[in-house]
Amino acid sequence: MFQSPLFQGLSPQEVRTALGHFVPRRYRKGQLIFKEGDLGQALYLVAGGMVRLFRTHLGGQERTLGLLSQGEVFGEMSLLDGSPRSASAEMLEEGELYLLFREEYQSLLRRLPQFGHNLALLLAERLRAANLLLDFLVFEEVEVRVAFALWRAYQKTGQALLPLSHAQVAGLAGSSRESATRALHALRKRGALELERGAVRILDPRLLEEIAHGLV
């Protein structure tokens, strides 16, 4: 968790000081952390477990936006402007989150201005990544998009077993469930992954990366 981009450039003692402003909370597998539209009052830092961000469209269909693991941050926009949550978040695994509420954030900035600079850099990086992802989703074929989504999830979480349904993979890849299922079976035939009940197991990360970047 000390490797989180929030703590870049801080000494170990300063990181401990920063963490003193956070409130730890444990969550069970499948527990909803917050819902889209909720008033946001805190930033979340993943200390353990895996978090899924998603949006719910008309008719109740969910679209998975991303997976987060140890050291990653979410909910920062609502912390800064107090706006309603733009997405929902749930725990895919039992784990612990550290919450930073707005009052403590202001206090932390006075003690460690570098923390605010790091948060600004994080927001800029996410905007840049979102723009690149939008281009990718528009122009690439579904199989490549599915491979890229799974490879990125593997890179971020470090876990070969990703607890994702076909519908959740479709959300990450920006495709229909049917198209994502066909792509998953094609990737399985190529030996890149195996399909398990409610999960995808990455068998060959290197091959998946090559498919994701159009190298094979």
Automatic annotation (TrEMBL):
Record carries keyword DNA-binding: yes
GO: which molecular function terms?
A: DNA binding; DNA-binding transcription factor activity
Q: Which residues form the Cyclic nucleotide-binding domain?
A: 6-109
One GO term of the cellular component aspect? cytosol
The keyword Transcription belongs to this UniProt entry's keyword annotation: yes
| Annotated HTH crp-type domain residues | 140-206
Write the record's keywords in alphabetical order, separated by commas.
Answer: DNA-binding, Transcription, Transcription regulation
Q: Name one Pfam family in it.
A: HTH_Crp_2
Q: Which SMART domains match?
A: cNMP (SM00100), HTH_CRP (SM00419)
Ranges that cross the membrane: none
Organism domain of life:
Bacteria
Name of the protein in its database record: Crp/Fnr family transcriptional regulator
From which organism does this entry originate?
Thermus filiformis
